[in-house]
Every structure is written in C-alpha cells, then in structure tokens.
Design goal:
The chain is of the alpha/beta class. It has 3 domains: 269 residues, 2-enoyl-CoA Hydratase, Chain A, domain 1 (Alpha-Beta Complex); 176 residues, NAD(P)-binding Rossmann-like Domain (Rossmann fold); 223 residues, Orthogonal Bundle (N-(1-d-carboxylethyl)-l-norvaline Dehydrogenase, domain 2), CATH 1.10.1040. The protein is built from 31 helices and 19 strands. It has an 8-stranded mixed beta sheet, sandwiched between helices. Strands 1-2-3-4-6-9 form a 6-stranded mixed beta sheet, sandwiched between helices. A 3-stranded mixed beta sheet has the order 5-7-8. α16 links the parallel β14 and β15.
Length: 712
Amino acid sequence: MNHATDSAVVNYEVRDNIAIISLNSPPVNGLGLPLRQGIQQYFYAASEDPTVKAIVIASSGKLFCGGADITEFSGKLANATPALPALLRELEESQKPIIATINGMALGGGLELALACDYRIALFSAKMGLPEVNLGILPGAGGTQRLPRLAGVETATQMIVSGAPVDANTALASGFIDCIHDESSSFLDAAISYARELLASNAPVKSCAELSVDTSSLPEHFFTDFRQSIARRTRGFYAPEQCIQCIEGACKLPLDKGLALETQLFSKCMTSPQARAQQHLFFAERAATKIPGVSSKTLPRTISSVAIIGAGTMGGGIAMNFANVGIPVILLELKQDALERGLNTIRTNYDISVKRNKITQPQLEQRMALIQGTLTYNSLAGCDLVIEAVFENMDIKKQVFAQLDAVCKPGAILASNTSTLDVNEIAASTSRPQDVIGLHFFSPANVMRLLEIVRGDKTADDVIISTIKMAQRIRKVPVVSGVGWGFIGNRILEPYGREAARLMLEGASPAQIDRVLYDFGLAMGLPSMIDLAGIDVGYLTRQADRDMFYGRDPAYAAICDKLYTLERYGQKTGRGFYIYEGRDKQEDPEIMPLANEIAQEHNIEVREISDKEILERTIYMLINEGAKVLEEGIAYRSSDIDTIYCNGYGFPGHVGGPMHYADEIGLEHVVNTLKQYQETLGDYGKEWFSPAPLLERLVAEGKSFKSLSTAS
Ligand code: 3HC
Ligand code: NAI
C-alpha cells in the first residue's frame, strides 16, 4: 500500500506488517504544519491498521530532519495543531513500537522527534544535535527532558547548551540511539529488518514518562561548575541559562511536569529580543550567499588545489584553512628563511591544537604534508585558486599579479587578501580581470569565521559563486562586498573607531569606553581592539589618505597618532592605550593627561562623559555608516552588515548586528539621537553626525532596514 505521491510532504507505505512514514519536505524536512499534519495522519493510519505491527519513521532526503520550521516562529503556525510537543507526546505513547531511522542530520525538533520514538537506528555518518540555543531558544519539544533520561545529564547538558551535534558513535555510546548501520544504500532495509527483530523478540514499547534521570553518578555541584565553565563563552546570552534550568528540572520532575517547565521557559526565550536577533542572523547568513544579478544555478569552477602568496601572519592562517579540509596548498615566499618561518608558525599553531586535544598528532602530520613551500612562481601553474597575502602595497601587489597572470592556467581564480586596496585596480593590472576577486580573511585567519568576498566590477559570476562555495567548504561565513574603501567591515569600523578616539579627548578614559562596549556585549571595547590590531596599522592607513581624515578634522584620531609617535603601537610593543605584561593589561596613567593636552591644543571641551553617550556615539556611528554603505550598493542588504559584524568584529550575536539593533530600537530614535549630537557637539557634531540620507528616508516612510530586503 502506498498512500502518497512524491510531491507529498510525507510518504506512507506498509511493507508486510511494517508501516513506513517518510518525511519528504525538502530542503531539510523542517517540521512545519504540513509535515506535522502528515506525520500525525499516517501515525493514526498505522495505529488503526490491524495489520501494522511496527512503525518506521524515515526520511526521503539526505537529512533526517532539520527541526522545527524556523520560518513559522514569527507567526502563529508554530503552535497550530498538531503542535510539535503534543504530536511527539502522542508518538511516545504509541501502542506499536516506532523506530526512528536517522539517515543524516537530525537537529532540534528532528532529534526530538527521534527521541520520542521507541527505538533509534542511525546511519554511521549521521549527526545529531539540539542547536536551538544558537537561535536564542531551547529545545521545546521535549529535548531537555528526554535527552537527559536517555543519554545522561552530562552528555545532554553539553549537547543542549553548546548546540553542537555529535556523531553516531558518540550517540550510541551515550545510549540515545540503539544501533548503527554502515551502508547508506541498504539503510532503510536495515531499519525494517531491525523493526522485525524487535517484533520477533517482543521488544516493548517505551516511554520516557517511565524513565527518571539517573543522577547517581553526577558529580557534586555539577550544574554550578558547568555554569562557571560556560560563563565567558555565553556572556550576555539568555537561552543557555534557560536550557540548564530545564535540565535541572528534568533531574527532579516527572516527565509531564518537566515538559510543562520546558514549554514555559521555551516561550520566555521565544518572545525575547535575543531570539529575534539570533534567528535574524541564521537567515542573514544564508541570505548573504544569494548575490543580486548572479544566478544561483551558476556552476562553480573546480577548486581542488590552492596557492597562497606570502607566508606571513595572514598567509599561514589562510593555508591552514585549506589543509584542515584536505585541500593541498602551495605556499610561496620570496626567501627561504621567510618560508621556513611561515611553515614553522603553522606547525606551532597545529601543535597547540594537538595539546588542546582538538586534533591528533597524525592529523597534524597529514595537514602539514598538504602544505608545500616554494620560492618559484612556476610551481603555481596548475593551481585552481591563488590567494595573494603579501604586504599591503599596491605596487607590490601589482607585481605579484603580473607574475600570476604569466604563470597561472586559464580559468584559475586570482584572489587578493588586501584589506584596503582597490580590487579593480589590482584586476586591471592583469589580462584577466574577470578571474580576479578580493578574499578578505580576518586575523587570525585560521580562527575567524568571516570571509569578506570583494566583487570587482569585472569579476565573473562563476568566480563569485566558486569563492562562496569554497568559503563554505573551509567553514567560513562568506559575505560579498562591492569595491570601496574598507569594503563593508573596515569602512564602518572607521567612524566607530574615530568616535572612541574623540571621546578620549572629550574626557572618557579608555577603560570607561571599553567597559561600556564590553557590557553591551562586544568581545572587547574599542581601545582594546585598537591596541590588539596595532596603533601603527591605523596610523599608516590614515597617512595613506590624509585628506579623507585630517581634511575634515585636524584632531582626527589625534590620540592614536600621538601614541604612534611615542612608538606605543599597542599590545605588540607592550604599551598602547594600556600597559601590557603578556596578556595582562593595566590602565596607563599617562593617557588621560596626553588626551587633555591634545584637547587643549584643539580647543576641545573636556567634561564628564556618560556611559549612554559613549554607547550612542560609537554604536550609532556603525549604524549610520552602515546605512551609507547600503545606499551606495557596497553592501547588498542590511543583514549582510550584521553577518559581518557578528562574525568578524565581535559584535554580540544576541543583539543581532548593528542594523538589526537599529531596527529594534527604532530608526527614528537613531536619527533623533544623531541630530541631537549634531547640535550639541559644535563643529565636530556638524561635520560627522549628519544622519545618512537612507536613514532619514526610511524614517520618513516609517520603514526599517529589514523592510528593504524583504521588499526585494
Ligand atoms: N526551518 C526552516 N528553514 C530551514 C531550517 C529550519 N529548521 N533549516 C534550514 N532551513 C532552510 C535554510 O534557511 C535554507 O533556505 P534557503 O535555501 O531559502 O536559504 C535551506 O533550508 C537550506 O539550508 P542550509 O543552506 O543551511 O542547508 P545545509 O544543507 O547547508 O544545512 C542544516 C542543513 C544543517 C539542517 C542547516 O540548515 C541547519 O543547521 N538548520 C537549522 C537547524 C536548527 O537550528 N534546528 C532547530 C530548529 S528550532 C527547533 O527545532 C525548535 C524545537 O525544539 C521545538
Ligand atoms: P605580513 O607582513 O605578516 O606577511 C606578508 C608576507 O608576504 C611576508 O612573509 C613577506 O615575506 C611576504 N611577501 C612580501 N612580498 C612578497 C612577494 N612579492 N612574493 C611573495 N611573498 C611576499 O603581512 P600580513 O599581516 O600577513 O598581511 C598580508 C596581507 O593581508 C596584506 O594585504 C594585509 O592588508 C592583509 N590583511 C592583514 C590582516 C592582519 O590582521 N594582519 C587582516 C586582513 C588582511
């Protein structure tokens, strides 16, 4: 009996006495209302059919199930009958055994669906996890209650609070799946055989309601210690604590009461601004891969070998990304000693990973073997992608690209990791500008998730698509930017940094500015960030374009320039805005007197600065410049700016990025506040605090940044 066509979201068939309910809702079998209704309908059919003795829940796609349909969260559908928690309770109380057949990813509600079944068989390659915490919520369909019962408190807490999936072997060892099958082509047959074995052995139906959480071997103070261990990583996030409270509840409460607690805390999370922010980022990351004017059907070029030019800070880190996923890399340097230094640094970084148990020694050797050093350009002739990471100097870059143009095969993608230079100019220095693109990695390049892809005027569509796919392969978050000073990220950073420097002249200390921004949720405040990036780096950038900065304001970043002349470049020289000893820093008593001196020279009034003013003048500058970047078409959507800031600049994910934050607090409020500073800060205010025309227009039309993307 086969009850559904391929276009149905659920397929149903009965093979002998086994009913098979197959989820068939691409791309991820999201448990939206139609899928929930389909599951329920066929569950009832199987329950009522006297010939059916067991039920298999499987998937017709590559994934088992990606969880609740996140697009339903902003409306009423998520709670429409059957709601997921209630449906899963029904399955759990089934009179006939249900076997979840986990052929691929089972995430969130998808894993919760499997946990509500009686037995679980997984394909060896399947991954299972409860990533809800990354969406600002908690597993709300029984995950916080069933997983601790089946896998134990420690595994469950780790999985639920980190959101990270585990593989099938780990799941089996933890006890929340029952067996693993090794071959994908015969997986469904294996699941059916497994169901028959269960029937033959009179295996009982199971319900988590009959299980309590085993806390007998739980270390004393487990939850207190766990909270401490995640405090830094989860600072400012609301959902992790709610997850822990649910698991604590599971340890004490019967299933129905635990589920009620879960529902209560789930809805508290779901209605929080953080959930909106984190869900915004989920969709933002995916939207960023869709490029206006470029068909998603464009075929990517093959990238199976990569070359990096320059084995310095960036080149070495970039090379590691490729070796980490098994792609061979050729690393080119000018001189043997520089090459050896670069390769040694890579090995040292991998050594640290081995010491931290992140990789094994054989993995280290495998990865090092994938990175070959060279001093000659001819070795790059066969590479599919070349990434240049030499000194930030246009003439040197042009020389490098001329050599690449001469030796690289036709169709090779030629990329520059420049952080400021004009990608069009670099492209024009070759005979193949269509193959040239900017790939702006962030430091440390082997760690930071963001990759800003800079689309030159002539960059070919398939080069853009290829680099987006390549970024995903090396586990980066790609965002495409147009060509323009500082692209998206650094362009917006500039006025934000300018305000920090100016606020010091007006009387705010580095520590006060850092505290305000850190408390807002940023990984670090501006003075600390400038110290880390290097005061010399910013200085040299300003000198390269003096008019753009000092032409508008003779006191522009004057405190930074002063520190530069004192050779206080930040952490690298042990002194910048702070005094450093190793990683420890302390306030420097000389900074404020220096700032006061400069303020006097430039007739800047020194006064007490409130925390509110610091926050507004820095964060609203990000927003204002973001609006300009958007209007100029350098960024395609406001959510791209959010993705960049949350993945490359330490902006708190629970705030959702500067542009989402602006939408949340209201664009009118942002404009009014900018105008207020425009008036109260004298000539300085008039110079820098004009609201961006796009902001004013959106306010006049009663619109948000988000409305710009949803309209297109
Ligand atoms: N709901 C709605 N849409 C989803 C979705 C979901 N759970 N998961 C993915 N999608 C959409 C994506 O937005 C994307 O749409 P697009 O093509 O229009 O951009 C499409 O499906 C494909 O997604 P990916 O590009 O991410 O595909 P991948 O193959 O790279 O990854 C995945 C698949 C690993 C499942 C990844 O999509 C993912 O991590 N999804 C989210 C998983 C998750 O967080 N689940 C928990 C949901 S909340 C929940 O279950 C609550 C419950 O406890 C009550
Ligand atoms: P670096 O000074 O650490 O390394 C540059 C390396 O390139 C040196 O090892 C040098 O020997 C080599 N090199 C110079 N000319 C060469 C040539 N003609 N052929 C081969 N090798 C050559 O510099 P870093 O910091 O790695 O920067 C490299 C590029 O990355 C620059 O364009 C920079 O703007 C960009 N960038 C730097 C970031 C950072 O935080 N350091 C962040 C993002 C981008």
